[in-house]
Specification:
alpha/beta; six-stranded antiparallel β-sheet; six-stranded mixed β-sheet
């Protein structure tokens, strides 16, 4: 939910901080007080294009900050993870929008700068705004299929999963067929190339780890003289000695012998004598190994030439077929498979065409089942929405879910073009709000009041399946009054039990249903007009609702009327709870 909204230097707002609650949050105020600016601020958070004219006169920048609690919305967390944006430990999401008079526009999500398109993609899962704004998900045709399927529940989801599974297999087979079908006359030329490459690699008789072995051998051969000189020197120092000095072997042996002679006299030296003897025997083993290495060392200058030639062959193959021997082996396997495919292409193509036909028929059948379920769900949805619209004073409206399938298509290419991972249906919500007029797409409705009530009817039905956690209704009361106003208030109360609802209203019947009530007003400070906001306590709520019932002054009758509206709202909410 939207927990906090902070706005600075935006239009008439110097600084406003609003802490919203769960349930139904109501914003009221006189016409022109600045309620629309609050909605504009939310729209900026949702990724609306920024207009520099929104920046307060005389200021260099404007700033909007929103904090959301997304701890109970794993799908939003998943989107953040895909974007590489770290989650806060408390499950909060911070979105910041900064506007500059110079035209610079910065969007931040949890401290990370993001593009406007990323912000839009994320925010569409956070807030849905209904009113005179473009953030109306039900106006997007691509949403209609998704919403209808959500109403169908697990039954439709299972059918969609089957369609997706068959569709993916079908497309995979289709791609293989397309690849084979395009080989044509180039196939023979390609076979020659592949055969040459296979012969070239196989004739080299490469072994795993061969390059590393040859490299080590080459280094040894290049440094052969240095190696044998050092080995001879070591052997001489350890064992042979020279005319001017004793060898290490002789010196240690003599020391061990001397200590042993006095060990009986001084027992403390006995352990030293034994340790020296151990060193002597170890050194004897080392002498043996050094001598064997020296005597067995071979230095063949012709071998170096052979190694270099072999390494050159490997380097040449690496330049053509891979950065290392493993890559070359992998490439060899791939081209062998490709050559086998080419040599047996017609046989393989025939099998693939049969598989493709079988999968195509399976896919059509799965899409047919899904379409039938959608049509059944659509009938129930139409009846439910008709009931909701009647309660909202639009009893003369006609609503239908238009599902365009492939029943009337005879051209196989047209049918294939309509197949998608979600079936072949094109779904659009249609409505007529006046008797005698034909139904038209939902997006063609002009009246803001009608649109808001239609949206409310939709949300009443979809509240249990729609995943958008926060709904904002901007002046949903346009063109309604009396009994219908009570109904609208009750429906928003219903929705707010499972969603956070923020509503800008002029109707006291709706305001009385609030769980939290905020007043937006315009003040004149130091010759400037400024918009301020405050959360009302129970007494202030009664006064504000009394003001909304009419009259220039707060009369006893107004206050009693407000009290009665609040009481009735409380009783209704108690029944809901």
């Amino acid at each position: 939910m939207l927990m906090h909204l902070s706005v600075k230097n935006l239009a008439l707002i110097d600084q406003i901080n609003l802490d919203f609650d769960r349930g139904l949050n109501i914003l009221t105020g006189e016409t022109g007080a600045g309620k629309s600016i609050i909605i504009d601020a939310v729209n900026l958070i949702l990724g609306d294009r920024a207009d520099r004219d929104l920046i307060q006169t005389g200021k260099d920048y404007a700033f909007v900050e929103a904090v959301f609690d997304i701890s109970k919305h794993p799908h939003i967390v998943q989107i953040l993870d895909e974007l590489g944006i770290e989650m806060e430990e408390d499950g909060s999401l911070l979105i910041v929008r900064e506007l500059s008079a110079s035209g610079k526009n910065i969007c931040r999500v949890n401290g990370r700068i993001v593009t406007l398109s990323i912000l839009k993609n994320l925010s569409r899962y956070l807030v849905d705004i209904h009113g005179q704004h473009e953030h109306q998900s039900l106006l997007r045709i691509e949403q209609h299929e998704e919403l209808l399927d959500m109403l169908g529940g697990a039954k439709i989801e299972k059918s969609k999963e089957k369609v997706r599974e068959i569709y993916n297999s079908w497309r995979q087979i289709h791609r293989k067929i397309k690849k084979l079908s395009h080989l044509g006359t180039d196939g023979e030329r390609r076979k020659d190339i592949l055969q040459y490459q296979i012969n070239e690699i196989e004739s080299a008789n490469l072994r795993e780890g061969e390059e590393e072995e040859l490299t080590r051998e080459r280094d040894r051969l290049i440094n052969a003289e240095k190696i044998i000189n050092i080995v001879n020197s070591v052997y001489q120092d350890i064992y042979s000695g020279s005319g001017s000095y004793y060898s290490a072997f002789d010196l240690i042996g003599r020391c061990a012998s001397q200590l042993k002679q006095i060990a009986d006299i001084e027992p403390a030296l006995d352990s030293l004598s034994q340790r020296l003897e151990e060193v002597f025997y170890q050194l004897e083993d080392i002498v043996y190994e050094v001598r064997n290495y020296r005597d067995g060392f071979e230095h063949d200058p012709y071998r170096l030439e052979e190694v270099e030639k072999r390494l050159e062959i490997i380097r040449d193959l690496k330049r053509k077929y891979g950065s290392n021997l493993n890559d070359i082996f992998s490439y060899l396997r791939e081209i062998k498979e490709e050559l086998d495919t080419l040599e047996n292409s017609q046989e393989i193509l025939d099998k693939l065409l049969k598989q493709e036909e079988d999968l195509y028929n399976q896919l059509l059948e799965a899409c047919h089942v899904l379409s039938k379920q959608r049509k059944e769900t659509a009938k129930i949805f139409e009846e439910q929405l008709k009931k909701q619209l009647t309660e909202l004073g639009m009893e003369k409206s006609t609503f239908m879910v238009n599902i365009e399938s492939v029943d009337n298509l005879s051209d196989p290419s047209e049918i294939r073009a309509r197949l998608t991972p979600n079936g072949y249906d094109i779904i659009e919500f249609m409505i007529s709000t006046n008797p005698g007029e034909p139904v038209k797409p939902l997006s063609k409705i002009i009246s803001g009041g009608e649109m808001s009530r239609i949206m409310l009817a939709f949300k009443t039905i979809l509240a249990q399946v729609d995943n958008i956690p926060t709904l904002i209704f901007d002046e949903i009361d346009v063109g309604i009054s009396g009994r219908i106003a009570h109904v609208v208030g009750e429906k928003m109360g219903n929705i707010s039990r499972s969603r956070q609802v923020i509503c800008v209203t002029h109707l006291p019947q709706i305001a009385a249903m609030a769980d939290s009530h905020y007043k937006i007003e315009k003040l004149y400070v130091d010759t400037h007009t400024r918009t301020v906001a405050s959360k009302l306590d129970n007494g202030q709520r009664q006064e504000e609702i009394a003001r909304m019932t009419g009259g220039k002054t707060l009369s006893k009758v107004n206050m009693e009327h407000a009290s009665e509206l609040i009481r009735m709202a409380q009783e209704y909410k108690s029944k809901l709870n």
